Amino acid sequence: MAFASALKCRECGREYPTDPLNVCEFCFGPLEVAYDYEAISRAISRERIQNGPLTMWRYQDLLPVDGDHAVDLQTGFTPLMKAPNLGRLLGLDHLYIKNDAVNPTNSFKDRVVSVASTKALEYEFKTLACASTGNLAGSVAAHAARAGMNAYIFIPADLERGKVVGAAIYGPTLVAINGSYDDVNRLCSELADTYPWAFVNINMRPYYAEGSKTLGYEVAEQLGWQAPAHCIVPSASGSMFTKIWKGLKEFEDLELIPKVHTHMHMTQAAGCAPIAEAYEAGVTRVRPVKPNSIAKSLAIGNPADGYYSLKTIQESDGDATIVPEDEVVAGIQMLAENEGIFTETAGGVVISGLKRLVERGAIKRDEVTVAYITGNGLKTLEAVEDTVRSVTIDPTTSSFEEQVLNA
Amino acid sequence: MAKLRVRFTFTPELIQEPVIWQLGQKFPIITNIRGADVRQAFGWALLELEGEEDQINQGIEWVRSTGIEVELVTGDVIE
User: Which of A281, A312, A376, A389 is the most exposed place for a label (fewest CB within 10 A)?
Assistant: First the structure.
């Protein structure tokens, strides 16, 4: 059963029933799911979690839906891998990679969409929808297919072909919009008000966002029921960053893990770093930017959770790092060549950001450090195709020896 | 009739301008202020705009032409 008790405004604290709402009708603040933690504490235990499925749904007591009827593609409980080679290179003895690129549609978005689509079915919506530039499109289309729902996916008309195919294959109605990034945003906000659809990150957003908490729970469980000293996280809207922290704090409050001393480190690419820029400027207002970044999955110019991300940084004594655009590919290569994991551009931002954190002394050699890799490299091949080389030879031993061995 | 929830952000030189009043005078739009913080150095206001879609669009264009930043309250929804 679900323990969600209400939706609560993060600004004025006003409470609402758990309906498909995302904004407070009074102050326009964002709504967040509130839980009956006393009831959860009576039900939950390490043993109960360990006896659950090997997916994110092992944490269903802390998700705002009935997990017994989840729209589930077997998302989550992804590997937490020790990274000895990269650790040696950077000077870290306890570096781990949380590899969320191995989810069903190859990104962490499956976590949030699994929750949103399950909630959409509870509300008896027939249609799942989103506006996307990539990862979300594929995940929404796949979950709608699994749930037997209609899907409307709105994309900018100039989206890369690979991403279009990655969503279209699941059979949604794929709508390419002629217009700017702002135009797509605006249209989808209006459509969400007009049509009785479950827009996963608009009217379903309070539920959707909760799915990212499982990235915090899993890491704590996989580390032997303890929180790491450092989390390095890529950020777009900032939602996942805040929810990993929320997940760790919930585990602490429920006494599933000891006190949390985790420092939350946000990473953004220079071409779209509105939250990190606000952090560096020491202000709480996040000023929107026009995205121009190689890390397209992080390119949200007006981040919904910017302010709350800054609060998470403050609460956790963390920080934010801006990664220059020309270091993103180097981060992808560093992870691939040292640990055999091929990540998309967002992961390149994380690894290059991690390197910068170590260089400036923010992370000590003996501290447990987790870098979150949230998407698969095959999604952004165009970003790295100029960096790879192969040798073409004639089909003879002499050609091989001359052009490869003795080159 | 359409409704749109937006945030206006004012720079210091625009704080004394009655832009929200002017918006309602120039365009047939109902402006409903739901939250605001206006100080010497900066100001912001959360509003619900109600009217015909094209009038809201033109109104927002005019507000932007004054130098005020206009964003959706919900932030960007394209992910």
Answer: A389
Residue A259 confidence class, pLDDT cut points 50, 70, 90: very high
- If asked whether residues A302 and A262 sit together in one domain, one would say yes
* pTM summary value: 0.95
Radius of gyration of chain A (CA): 21
Q: Give me the number of domains chain B comprises.
A: 1
* Cα–Cα distance for residue pair A221/A111, rounded to 1 Å: 17
CATH number of the domain enclosing B52: 3.30.70.260
Q: Check pLDDT > 70 for residue A76.
A: yes
For B1-59, what is each residue's pLDDT tens digit? 888 899 998 888 888 889 999 999 999 999 999 988 888 777 889 999 999 989 999 99
User: Which residues of chain A have a CB within 8 Å of the CB of B77?
Assistant: 131, 185, 188-189, 192, 199, 201-202
Tokens linked to A387? 């960096």
Closest Cα of chain B to A156: distance in Å?
Answer: 9
**ipTM value for the complex:** 0.85
Assess contact for A266 and A241: CB atoms under 8 A: yes
Q: What is the pLDDT of residue A24?
A: 94
| Residues in chain B closer than 8 A to A27 (CB atoms) | 34-35, 46
* Domain enclosing residue A166, as ranges: 4-53+109-208
Instruction: Please name the helix (run of DSSP H) or strand (run of DSSP E) that holds residue A263, with its range, or none.
Output: strand A263-269
Q: How far apart are CA A315 and CA A241, in angstroms?
A: 12
What would the pLDDT profile of A209-229 be if each residue is shown by its tens digit? 999 999 999 999 999 999 999
Answer whether B61 touches A (CB < 8 Å). no
Distance of alpha carbon A304 from the chain centroid: 14
